[in-house]
Design a protein that fits this description.
The protein is of the alpha+beta class and 73 residues long. It is built from 2 helices and 6 strands; from the N terminus they run E-E-H-E-E-H-E-E. Strands 1-2 form a two-stranded antiparallel ribbon. It has a two-stranded antiparallel sheet with strand order 3-4. A two-stranded antiparallel sheet has the order 5-6. It is globular.
């Protein structure tokens, strides 16, 4: 799948994944620069509370919206 890249969204040329923000992109990189720097795998990202949003972009964390009146718990 090809997602749109804009001023706030980006794609990692190393792993090919898309990110909703520069912060999410930065968070997915780990290790010491330059030799041990790498992209975290999907499971590693989820362990650090990253996830993909409904549009398919990786985000630092999914937002939790407060329940609205009328929502049934």
């Amino acid at each position: 799948m090809t997602l749109k890249v804009t001023h706030s969204k980006c794609r990692c040329t190393a792993c090919g994944d898309y990110f909703n923000s520069a912060a999410a992109f930065d968070k997915h990189r780990t290790g010491e620069y330059p030799d041990a720097r790498r992209c975290m795998g999907h499971q590693e990202r989820r362990e650090r509370k990253m996830d993909t949003n409904a549009a398919g972009y990786w985000v630092t964390a999914l937002r939790e919206w407060p329940a609205s009146e009328g929502d049934n718990p």
